[in-house]
Amino acid sequence: MSINKTSFPSEEKYRLTDQIVRSSRSIGNNIAEGHGRYHYADAAKFFINARGSAAETIDHLIIAFDEDYITKDVLIELRAECEECMKMINGYIEFLRKKGS
């Protein structure tokens, strides 16, 4: 599911919608950068950042819901996707930590 930017007021075009896009893209960016690292501990740092970006995305979605820019159904679905992503990232962080010790 995606967010319909037209449901946001025009003044939010470069504020909240931009933050949602940036934080959600940052998840994949940090995963990619972490994957390219040679050392396990170094890679884990980027996966921790990716997890933080997922949490940040959830926060932005809650704000969008609180402001009535998205529906509860959209919030629930996208939040669940972020939380599932965070679980997978947590698992990989744990794997990296075990490999690094």
Write a brief caption for the model.
The protein is mainly α and 101 residues long.
Molecular structure report:
The chain is mainly α. It has a single domain (9-100), classed as de novo design (two linked rop proteins) (Up-down Bundle). Helices cover 75% and strands 0% of the residues. The chain contains 3 helices and no strands. The protein has helices at residues 16-35, 40-66, 72-100. The model has no long low-confidence stretch (mean pLDDT 91).
Q: What's the CATH architecture? A: Up-down Bundle
CATH class category: Mainly Alpha
Shape: elongated
- Average pLDDT taken over every residue: 91
What class would the helix/strand composition place it in? mainly alpha
Radius of gyration: 15 Å
Distance between the amino and carboxyl termini: 39 Å
- Low-confidence runs (pLDDT<50, min 5 residues)? none
Biggest sheet overview: none
Strands, count: 0
Q: In the CATH hierarchy, what is the superfamily?
A: 23S rRNA-intervening sequence
CATH topology: de novo design (two linked rop proteins)
Number of helices, where a helix is a run of at least 4 consecutive DSSP H or I residues: 3
Provide the succession of SSEs: HHH
Give the DSSP E fraction (strand runs of 2 or more residues): under 5%
- Helix content range: over 70%
* Count of folded domains: 1
